[in-house]
Amino acid sequence: MKRKVSVLGSTGSIGRMTLEILELYPEKFEVLALSAGENISLLIEQIEKFKPLYVSVKNKEKADFLKEISKKLNFKILYGMEGICEIASLEDADIVVSAISGIDGFLPTYSAVKAGKRILLANKESLVMGGELIKKEMEKSSSALIPVDSEHNALFQLIEKRNRGEIKKYIITASGGPFFKKNIDEIRNASKDEALNHPVWKMGKKITIDSATLMNKGFELIEAHWLFSIPPENLDVFIHPQSVVHAIIEKKDGTMVAFLSTPDMRIPIQYALLHPETPDKPISPLGIEKLKNLEFYPVDYEKFPCLSLAIFALREGGSFPTVLAVANEVAVSKFLKGEIKFFEIFKVIEKVINEHKKLELNSLDDLIMIKEWAEKRALEIVGGGK
Question: SS3 of 17, please?
Fold first, then answer.
């Protein structure tokens, strides 16, 4: 039987690539539902091609815009966060691809977990904001998380059938983004265009800025902690500009095992969709001739202080990762709008983190309260008020 797939964030980069992979396997998958934010023209193209039964959009205005086409193609229109969460927990869905950008991805992911779905996780903020809540819900349901991020997918494959007791260190790599070879003064006042000019990956604006600050890598450390139950002290990051080695495990005997592939997100997406079946359709084969010059460097935390904040939040736990994710979202949004400078992203997050007093996340209400405080405080700091 075909597996029915709901794609959350279908017009984003991960969503588009997911649909591309689904097209390769028409005998295995069918699209049950799509959700999108702003790009309605692309969403309409996707609706016409994949003919989902459910579609969720950002607001009622966009939902009204789709009414005529919904009558012709016979799909149910939903909107807002409530609509996305409904799509994430549809009874008929076998697979939910969580690819919404930023902190808005948490509630849909949480809903899918509560509904016992198999989730292909491409939204880092879900586990950064509420990893503890999600893990608690997973213990009550039949839900499963398969990571789509290249680093976590690589770790997943490296450790899936391995004795975890033999592993000493779990290492993920970072390309270094556009500023790896820049000095601090060049980074401090970098323009939006410079920050968005990633040398390897083509992604959405928010995650591209997170890659430029290396906050993205900090999120990935927190995500790896929750995905694989790895103690913070056993996680590490190295700069690897070629982005061919995505993860490494260091064994207690001093040897290492690495996962290598072409930097192409379609590779982990295909693996996650088909798991536990092994994909037999090569996508961007690597080729050993491409392994001539692989470089690895320790992180310069003075140049990338956002990563230090993320490591602090990971080690402190509790509500700190939630505050980190929310403050970062506000700061990045303000930078993209030209309202703060690049290095002020770090300053805003640092101030919110320093003012926060750790709380435990015992419920969804706790998380919402902390989110609202962090968002309000970050906006006040950006605005210059108290």
Answer: helix
Q: Do residues 310 and 350 touch, judged by C-beta distance below 8 A?
A: no
Dist CA 349 CA 92 (whole Å): 40
Is the confidence at residue 386, as pLDDT, over 60?
Answer: no
| Top CATH class, 317-386 | mainly alpha
* Cβ atoms within 10 Å of 270's Cβ, excluding its own: 22
pTM attached to this predicted model: 0.94
Mind giving me the DSSP string for 150-183? HHHHHHHHHHTTS-GGGEEEEEEEE--GGGTTS-
CATH assignment, 3-148: 3.40.50.720
> Where are the domains positioned within the chain?
3-148, 152-309, 317-386
What's the CA gap between 89 and 173, in Å, rounded? 33
C-alpha to C-alpha distance for 244 and 228, rounded to whole angstroms: 22
Strand partners, 235: 170
Grade residue 249 by pLDDT with cuts at 50, 70 and 90.
Answer: very high
Segments in the chain forming alpha helices (H) = 13-24, 40-50, 60-65, 67-73, 80-88, 106-114, 124-140, 150-159, 184-188, 192-195, 205-213, 215-228, 266-274, 305-316, 320-336, 344-355, 364-383
- Between CA 111 and CA 131 the distance in angstroms is 13
